[in-house]
Each structure stands twice: as structure tokens, then as C-alpha cells.
Amino acid sequence: MGESSTIAAREAEIIEAFALLDSWEEKYEYIIELGKKLPPLDERYKLAENIIKGCQSTVWLVANYSDGKVFFKADSDAVIVKGLVSLLIKVLSGVTPQEILQAQLDFLQEIGMMTHLAQTRSNGLRAMIQQMKHYALAFQSINS
Amino acid sequence: METSTHILNTLQVEDIRNQFPILKRTIHNKPIVYLDNAATTQKPMVVIDALSHYYMHSNANIHRGIHTLAEEATAAYEATRTAVQVFINASCTEEIIFTRGTTESINLVANTWGRKNIQEGDEIIISEMEHHSNIVPWQILCEEKKAVLKVIPISDEGELLLDVYRQLLTPKTKLVAITYVSNSLGTINPISEIIQMAHNAGALVLVDGAQATVHLDIDVQKMDCDFYAFSGHKIYAPTGVGVLYGKKALLEAMPVFMGGGEMIKEVSFAKTTYAELPYKYEAGTPNIADTIALKAAIDFMRETDVAMIHQHEKELLEYATKQMLQIPNLRIYGTAENKTGVISFLVNNIHPQDMGVLLDNQGIAVRTGHHCTQPLMHRLGIPGTVRASFAVYNTMEEVDRLINGIQKSIKMLL
Ligand SMILES: Cc1ncc(COP(=O)(O)O)c(C=O)c1O
């Protein structure tokens, strides 16, 4: 996935990849694979201030701003959440704050993973998206 | 599946299952295997019917109307009180207070008896395996009164350390608030012994019966507890109704909880006098429909045969335990000698939530997480567990599906 591609193009790529997976098993195996492949966050970033706490699993999120683009790194203690986190990074990392703020993230619906977003309290995914947007907002205000 | 004989044969379990409409559902296109009964049980048709019958035939506000509907509703509501009294063998109906559930029952005691009787320096004893509902109300009280909260530790197996408990009891101990059955570990605590020790030290005992009431015979007089709390929704009744049992003399001496209608004798701006027990603690229009349906749930349990239900659940737990121990790297949390209802486990370092998600996709409902017992998880050094919990309608085949489901999830995750 090229860093210069648009959010829409990135989402389309993911939807395409999932379309090849027939069963729920294949979909989840793919997500688990993504979770395992996402490089673990360096321990020095696993600080309280980077934690997005769900009541069952934890997500760590750090953001960087360079050349007008936002770059995210993240981790989770649960591998399925980590896989979904990896997808969110694929879509939202390396684009402008403006693009992040406008992202609808419909791909989660398309690939049948909306239930994970609905579980707001248990896994912190929705809170993670919010936090990504907060970062984007903060970086955008640096710009202006 | 096991070949040994079971208390309930396949036909009998099938007959019971047919009384629970929700069990016909499919989840992700698979017949549901509902193993989250410790959180809440499913409801039999008689309970659902009792609810709709009430609204279709007898809906009225109770205790005040003189018309027929009001009388019918009042009679049905009070019939539940009698059914509960008999079910837990309280000595009279005045000892049965309806609440929203275990949590409210415990808070009622903390706010009335506790506020009146706990003073600075007094001690309240709870245990390491308590549900947050039996921790937080006492913390609030202790903070307010500058009292001391003491905690009975557990062994690695998940049993209370009674020797330590004995040492924690002092002349300053005013209350022991303890669960009968652990919702996270399944441990059955030696409740009579605990109560006797407390009484010998001059302390009262509140028993959290949220988990025990569905799995064990409850006799509050024999147990000799001073308070007993439980929730209807964990014994096949609707959500929103629960019970506080208290010894009559204690309930009579306690100050009121909430003020309002129903709980008064006479109101004037100068002074209000309160109603007799049990109404003194039931301010406002109560949850009439769900309370009436609670009787249907108790009747269901009695008609199904309570002893048989308990034996069936015991067999499910034993079979599940035996099967789980065959799975490499699976560790069961809570291996007390005396256990019922729930089995908590972890496999390797698989996060419980990952296991829960994959089981759900196979139609299997379990609980994952800390089960509202964070201090217990901290004691065990784990973030949480996967918990399967059983009810009368579960089958050995469902246990097999759980075991297969776990194995499949492990394969996908490792
Ligand atoms: C041991 C125990 N105590 C208290 C509660 C709280 O019950 P409720 O939420 O019905 O008030 C529960 C329910 O999960 C429980 O398992």
C-alpha cells in the first residue's frame, strides 16, 4: 500500500483483500496474521498517556507529525484487536490531518468487522479512532 | 461424550430446553450454545408468559387501589414474596424486601444498617474474591465513617484462608460481607462456618447469594446469616428484581433507605411515620411485573426439581473440567474442592477477549474479562479469564461444542 495513496484507495484495497476470504475463519485468520505482523510498540512508548483503555483489552497509540502528514504506531494486548488496529493504521497513517478528519472508515462495515467497533467498552477500538482524529485535529492546528 | 448415566436423560433435557424459546436461536448460523449463565440466565416461557399476562390482564398499581385489578396485582405481587420466603426458608414474609437486584440489596444494607451502626475505627471484613458489588458499597461506607475494610485472602486454588479470617476477626469487627459462591472461580465458600465464626466474634454477616441461589439449596435460617442478597435474573427470572433477606429484628431496627410513597404510614410536614416491614424499604411504585414473574421462575425451578437441577449442573461442570484438562496448556482458575456453576480458564498467553471473539463466531457465548472482580484478577496476576457457566438447560453435547470451539480457537490463534 503506497504511502501516497488516498484513504479511499487504501480502504478499497482492504475490501478487495477481504473479498477473497470466504469463511469467517479465513477472515479472522487474516486479521490474526495482521495482528501478529504488526511490529510491537517499543516498550518506551507503552506509557500511561498512550493507553486507550477498553475494559478488557488495551490499545497503545502514538502519533508523529512530519511533512504535513500524520504517522501512527500502535499495539494491543489482544491479537484480534491488534489486527484491526493494524488495518486502521494502514488506512490512516501517512495522510494529512484533513484527510484523517474526513475519513468515514466504511471499510469496517464492508469487511464485516463493525461488531468490534460496537463493543465500545470492551476493546477501545472506537476510542482509538477518536484519539487518531484528536491527534489529527491537534496537528492541523499547528499548521494553521 | 460420556457414556455414564446422567441424572437427566437426553429427552428430559430436551423437554427443559423446549421451555426456553431463545435456545432455538442461531448465532452466526450455528445453534446457540449459551454458557454465560453466571451473568444472566435465559428465561423459560412461563416467566415470559407471566410478564405478558400481567400486562394483558392485571396491570394496576399495587397496595392502594380498591378496584379488582389493583387487588389482583397486589395479590400476585405478594404471592411472590411468599414464594421467595419459602424458597430460601425465611421465617416470615416481612423478612423479604424486593430490590432491583443484588447490588441494590447490598447498597441498601450499607446505607441503612451500615450508616447507623458503623463508627470510626470499626471493621468490615470482605474477601479477595468479592464481586465489585460487594466491595464498593463497603469502601464508600468505610471512607465516610473512617472505618477499616479488611480482606480475607485466598489460596492459589481459590479457597478462602480461614485461618487468616479467624485472625482478622476482632471485637471491632461489625460486619462480614461475603459471597457464598464466587462468580469468577466457582468456589463454594463454607458459609455456615464463616457465619458462626463471625457471630462468635459479635459480628453480623451479609451473604452475597447472587451466584449461589441458582446452584445450591438456600436455607437462610439454617445458614443463620443476618442478610442475604440475590438477583432474580440469575435464577431464570427477569432483570430488574432482586431480594434482600434480613432477620426481622434487624430490619425493624434499621433506618429507612429511600423516602417516598408506599414506605410511609402517615406524612405531614412536621413528621412522617414509616410503614411496617417489608414496605418500609420499598419506596415508590415497585417493579410489579418483574416481581410477579419472579414467582414463575421459582415455580419453574421447583417443578423441574431443584435437586435434579443441581445434580445436572454438577455433572456438566465435572464433565467440562475433565475435558478441558485434556487440552494442552489450558489452565483452570479456581480449583477448589467445593465448586459449582462456573469454570474459568486461560490457554497459554491467549488473550481472553480473542478466545471470546472466536467462540462467539462459532455460536458459543462465554464471558471474558475480569468478571467485575478486578482485585481477584490482580491477586491471580492475570488480566481476566474466559468463563463458561452452566444452567439447567445446558447439555453434555454443548460442553463438547465448547471444547471443540476452544481447540479450534487455539489453532487459529497460535
Ligand atoms: C457474586 C455476585 N455478586 C453480585 C452481583 C451483582 O448482581 P446484580 O448485577 O444483579 O446486582 C453478581 C452479578 O454478576 C455476582 O455474580
- Uncertain segments of chain A are none
Biggest β-sheet description of chain B = 7 strands, mixed
What is the helix fraction of residues of chain A, given as a range? 40-55%
Per CATH, the class of chain A reads Alpha Beta
Short description:
Chain A has 144 residues and is α+β, with helices and mostly antiparallel strands.
Output the keywords:
heterodimer; A: 144 residues; alpha+beta; Sufe protein. Chain: A; B: alpha/beta; Aspartate Aminotransferase, domain 1; Aspartate Aminotransferase, domain 2; 7-stranded mixed sheet; 4-stranded antiparallel sheet; 15 helices; binds pyridoxal-5'-phosphate
Structure in words:
The complex is a heterodimer of chains A (about 140) and B (about 425). Chain A is of the alpha+beta class and about 140 residues long. Chain A has eight helices and three strands, in the order H-H-E-E-E-H-H-H-H-H-H. Chain A has a single domain (about 5-140), classed as Sufe protein. Chain: A, CATH 3.90.1010.10. Chain A has helices at about 5-20, 25-35, 80-90, 95-100, 105-110, 115-120, 120-125, 125-144, and strands spanning about 50-55, 60-65, 70-75. In chain A, a hairpin with a 2-residue loop joins strand 2 (about 60-65) and strand 3. The longest helix of chain A is centred in the last third of the chain and has 19 residues, at about 125-145. Chain A starts with 6 loop residues before the first helix and ends with a helix. Chain B has about 425 residues and is of the alpha/beta class. Helix content of chain B is about 40%, strand content about 15%. Chain B has 15 helices and 17 strands. Chain B has helices at about 10-15, 45-60, 70-90, 100-115, 135-145, 160-170, 190-200, 210-215, 220-225, 250-255, 290-305, 305-325, 350-360, 375-380, 395-414; strands spanning about 25, 30, 35, 95-100, 125, 150, 175-180, 205-210, 225-230, 240-245, 265, 270-275, 330-335, 340-345, 365, 365-370, 385-390. At the A-B interface, helix 2 and helix 3 of A face helix 13 of B. The site of pyridoxal-5'-phosphate has 13 residues of chain B, from helix 4.
